[in-house]
Amino acid sequence: MTRDNGAGGGDELRHRGGRSRDSSRDLALREAALDLLAEVGYDRLTMDAVAARARAGKTTIYRRWQDKAELVVDSLNSLKGAPDIPDTGSLRQDLHALAEEITSAEGKFGARVTVGMVSALARDAELRQVIREKFMAPRMTGFREVFERAVARGEMSDGHDLDLLAGLFPALALQQLVMSGELPDTEFARQIMDEAVYPLATAPAARIATGATAGGKTYG
Amino acid sequence: MTRDNGAGGGDELRHRGGRSRDSSRDLALREAALDLLAEVGYDRLTMDAVAARARAGKTTIYRRWQDKAELVVDSLNSLKGAPDIPDTGSLRQDLHALAEEITSAEGKFGARVTVGMVSALARDAELRQVIREKFMAPRMTGFREVFERAVARGEMSDGHDLDLLAGLFPALALQQLVMSGELPDTEFARQIMDEAVYPLATAPAARIATGATAGGKTYG
DNA sequence: CTGCAGCGATACGCTCGAGTATCGAAACGC
DNA sequence: GCGTTTCGATACTCGAGCGTATCGCTGCAG
Question: What is B2-77's CATH topology?
């Protein structure tokens, strides 16, 4: 018995002697799982491969997590959230800083993981939520803050749909990755910022300019 | 012997009697494969399921295609290309017509298939090319023509990156589908057109407005 | 020292799916 | 009619991968 380190109670009748859990194994296993997620994706990730990469036995995995899905979800949740925000003086420079950060090693890693999860995402709502919270949301809130500063600065007109704007870069990067198989590099990211994100952000807000879309519905 | 109906030679020493291939089985099998692709994706598509759905034996499949990958590629290639172009008088109305068409039953089917292929796309360049040619390209050329007409009409300034513009909607729709698990409906599509595609298309071209990006590199 | 629990390693049972083999029936040319 | 080929159906082999069991070892508590 004594399974899981998840959200359960925890104490109850504890040990009566015996070796204690080596928490370094948790870290090694989660890291192995994430690396493999980025390399081969969820469907092709095997428990044997995780164990082998972490130099662990499969017993050690199943003592901690019920199954593959739980291991993956917990590994994703163990990632640290938002990296940090640039804060130069202009919208364009802020966007370039974001482009730099997103195409850093860590950003590329996140992109690979996301793509590796896509097939599983299509049929598992819990995985979708984790991916949204751990990858999309932090990246998008970075954009949001940049846009909000630009609005306060007067560089952008008010009335823009910031959710849409913040999702623009991730969407184009995802498409590029899926369709070409190559990761977006810094040059590509900057190009998107200059030719899509920045012009759209500084264009007059659609709702004001046209008055046509009175719906007011927000994106998920 | 006598395998494949692919790109091979074809005639050689023909029949010396015997039952002839029933071409209606080809159609039924390809249709079953495409339906299953849209429903469960490439990885979870099984040959038994294809055979069962087409009320065929697996023998009948393997007499025509070498393996699963070949069946899928051939099925995708059997799809008809571009549907057709609207041709109203204004850019905005053209875009709304595109939104309608893309969220039609056929368009939704294409979206499902594309998402179902994503995981396989990450590791198979041939599949990537087929998807690009059969799904992305036709949709994007529809956009291109709409934009070119708008430029000719004077509704858009010259100098825009039409590849980027044409890819904008597919990228946002793909993202929406992946992240929410729901297909984009007509309202959502129109919203994207009004708040992203149209404003960006009618904004001054980035290259002219800024003069900053002198690269001139094109997207895949 | 003794017993218990975690550790890595290995082997195992089980299911699923790809691709093959075999069967009786049906269609086609001669 | 007769041989040949296709058809659907079924049974099969084979490998992959999940999750479990077992083993010898190692640390920790009492």
Answer: Tetracycline Repressor; domain 2 (1.10.357)
Sequence-separated (6 or more) residues with CB below 8 Å from residue B179 = A121, A128, A131, A132, A136, A220
CB proximity B217 to A under 8 Å: yes
Q: Which of residues 48-107 of A touch B (CB under 8 A)?
A: none
Q: Is the pLDDT of residue A48 over 50?
A: yes
In CATH terms, the fold of domain A82-202 is Tetracycline Repressor; domain 2 (1.10.357)
d(CA B166, CA B143): 5
Angle between helices A105-121 and B105-121 (to 10 degrees): 130
- As a residue count, chain A comes to 220
Q: Name the stretches of chain B with pLDDT < 70.
A: 1-16, 82, 206-220
- Least Cα separation, residue A1 to chain B (angstroms): 34
Q: Same topology for domains B2-77 and B82-202, yes or no? A: yes
Radius of gyration of chain B (CA): 21
Determine the pLDDT at residue A216: 37
Per cent of chain A over pLDDT 70 is: 85
**Residues of chain A neighbouring B132 (CB-CB closer than 8 A):** 179
Q: Which of B104, B152, B74, B198 is nearest to A206 (CA)?
A: B198
Per-residue model confidence as pLDDT tens digits over B15-65: 567 899 999 999 999 999 999 999 999 989 999 999 999 999 999 999 999
Q: How much is the pLDDT for A210?
A: 43
Domain ranges of chain A: 2-77, 82-202
In angstroms, the separation between the Cα of residue A204 and the nearest Cα of chain B is 8
